Amino acid sequence: MPRFRTVLAAVVGAGLALPAVVFATLDNVPVVDPGDATPSCPDKPCYALGRTTGYQAKVGTNRGLYTVPKDGTLVSWTVKLSKPGVKQIDFFNKSLGGESQAAIAVLRMGTKLHARLVAQGEVQKLEPYFGQTVEFPLQKTIPVKKGWVIGLTVPTWAPALAAGLGGDTSWRASRAKGTCDDSQAQTAQAVNQIGRYYCLYRTARIVYSARIVSTP
């Protein structure tokens, strides 16, 4: 995805001969262009995230892509959605608890793949935007800290998964050991809940991003 960068100036230092200027930036997380990472549906097999909170762990040689680089405020998020067919939509709705929905999530990582969900945006209905890339501004912005991780919470399902990529590309889900193949169990985290991101899924990418205004 293209990187957007805006410089905002704030005047400080009243009483000085020349006012000092500090800068905030509006940046995408991640800064790596998804390139040909296109969600799979309506091709067969049609892949979707199901009933979990996940984050992209690696894309090629790039790790930590979704780590917040500096303190700031999360103001919006974007997701690239495939366009599943009628039968595919019906299958996922029946199998994964209802209509397609997702929300941006902010994680504070701990040890041994544990993480606390610090905050979450409003849950958005996705079906009206199938086949598009859509940006959701947050009604209530979220303060974020350097080192936190931006993820995606999917209480039902979301056709935002690009598959068939290289083995050096992978994402993690809030599922415990021994449950990695169970996409029907509800593992989406709630705010302030601690989950374990044991399950690593290779050759796939969640196609989402966030915009953060840094704190001057």
Question: Would you give an account of this structure?
Answer:
By secondary structure, this protein is mainly β. Helix content is 5%, strand content 48%. The chain contains one helix and 16 strands. It has one helix at residues 86-95; strands at residues 6-12, 20-29, 49-59, 62-63, 72-80, 101-109, 114-120, 124-125, 133-144, 149-158, 161-163, 170-173, 194-196, 199-202, 204-206, 208-214. The strands form three sheets. Strands 3, 4, 6, 7, 8, 10, 12, 13 and 14 form a nine-stranded antiparallel beta sheet that branches. It has a five-stranded antiparallel beta sheet with strand order 1-2-16-5-9, with no helix packed on it. A hairpin with a 7-residue loop joins strand 1 and strand 2 (20-29). It is globular, with a radius of gyration of 18 Å. The model is unreliable at 1-18 (pLDDT under 50).
The ordered string of helix (H) and strand (E) elements is: EEEEEHEEEEEEEEEEE
Major pleated sheet: 9 strands, antiparallel
Q: Compute the number of strand runs.
A: 16
Q: Mean pLDDT score, rounded?
A: 89
What is the global morphology?
A: globular
Q: Provide the helix percentage.
A: under 10%
Distance between the termini: 25 Å
Task: Report the total helices.
Answer: 1
List segments where confidence is low: pLDDT < 50 over at least 5 consecutive residues.
1-18
Proportion of beta-strand residues: over 45%
| Class computed from helices, strands and strand pairing | mainly beta
User: Cα-atom Rg, whole angstroms?
Assistant: 18 Å
Secondary structure elements and pairings:
Blueprint: E1 6-12, E2 20-29, E3 49-59, E4 62-63, E5 72-80, H1 86-95, E6 101-109, E7 114-120, E8 124-125, E9 133-144, E10 149-158, E11 161-163, E12 170-173, E13 194-196, E14 199-202, E15 204-206, E16 208-214
Antiparallel strand pairs: 1-2, 2-16, 3-4, 3-10, 3-12, 5-9, 5-16, 6-7, 6-8, 6-10, 7-13, 11-15, 12-14
